[in-house]
Amino acid sequence: MYRVDQTISSGSLQVDHNGRLRHFLTIDGLSRELLTEILDAAESFSGVTEQSVKKVPLLRGRTIVNLFFESSTRTRTTFELAAKRLSADVLNISARTSATSKGETLLDTLRNLEAMHCDMFVVRHPDSGAAHFIARHAAKDVSVINAGDGHHAHPTQAMLDMFTIRRVKGSFDNLTVAIVGDILHSRVARSQIQALNTLGVKQVRIVGPKTLLPSDVSQLNVETSHNLLDGIRDADVIIMLRLQRERMRGALLPSEHEYFQLYGLTEDKLAHAKSDVTVMHPGPINRGVEMDTQVADGPRSVILEQVTHGIAVRMAVMSMAMRAAGGNP
Amino acid sequence: MPEHINVDNLIASMADELRDLLVTRSIDNPVMIGIHTGGVWVASRLHALLNIDDPLGTLDISFYRDDFTKIGMNPQVKPSNLPASIDGRHIILVDDVLYTGRTIRAALNEIFDFGRPASVLLAALIDRDGRELPMAADVSGHAITLAPNCHIKLTGPEPLSLSESILEDT
Fold it and tell me: What pTM was computed for the model?
């Protein structure tokens, strides 16, 4: 059982004494005001793409390092684009973890990058807590953004989902949001649940087979369902999670075909949700596993908007965290 | 005392001056752009008085400020909104108070990220001393000299009025 939320404490690490963002590691512990500030800033940044020069000089002269210990295309590219649209210089490093001396290797990598006077690390790592570890050991003028750590958190993905929901629905009050799939292993789901509850939706439901839902849901403030039709009934938003195929090997799931029969989203099943339901997916989609093509490409899907919004949200988070780090460029 | 200045009269005289200037420079069909927030209030009045065809453009220069690292990001940034294309157009840039010139520097940088205008005219309601950059207004409503710790501010949008205050610490 993963109990990462209890063991990784962000404490006051993320926010400085003025309440400003210092690092962005997890949604856990951040206030509704701060999350709203991120969404508002992202709204302003979304206008930058309408300029003929799609860039603002806000982070000119700053260096941002994308430190990816796990492969990712979408997240890394949108972080890179966001940094470039803020005029920062970007360094992409794909590192392999060394199984023998992980802690030491991570710290060594960090010290080397600090010696090159980098201002911000965007970190993705297969181990829960890696971004916290780096934030705790980084020089005091360096900011750390978590781009996904193990099963723990993926806060910028959650915020771009919140941004998309607010764009489509206007506000969070009175919304019923169903998150469907492998909740247990999903850092995206964990961060989404925290963000939705902090922003004050009416109800968050998690839907999936018993083997893929956390056993201890009492602290999550969610409703649980093992039946897709019950779980999405009258939902305003349905978030489908990606099914990680390696889970099949762990005997947590029968076959893709059976999963699709039980939990795959089709137009027929969607009729049980509200008529103006919005369908989301963090990508990449397994068509015919989590949802069929008609739904993925249908009028209720905002999957590509999510990708677009990812850039503005990451611009907001990076400029806010860089601000609090202070110092002259 | 700025409290006694009639802002509407200033704007009316600015409109007359601008009209003459446009004739002198053979400019017809200019684009007007106001800088958030006070500049937009002044610009919307001028825009109506001059019967400008294109909708009023607005600029929020927060992302272009040179003091970002000192004061951080303003969370109340409003989106900038310029007419479809400003390439080759004559622009009248409007602000409420011209002081150090840094706001105008930032605004010019932002304008050029949207395109390449044919020319830019600067109109400021108040032209106060204390320039730190080589900027000058082509048209201004009122010139004023103030002590360095004094602050003059336009309040609005309805009615527009000026107020002066002493800054405690600069």
Answer: 0.85
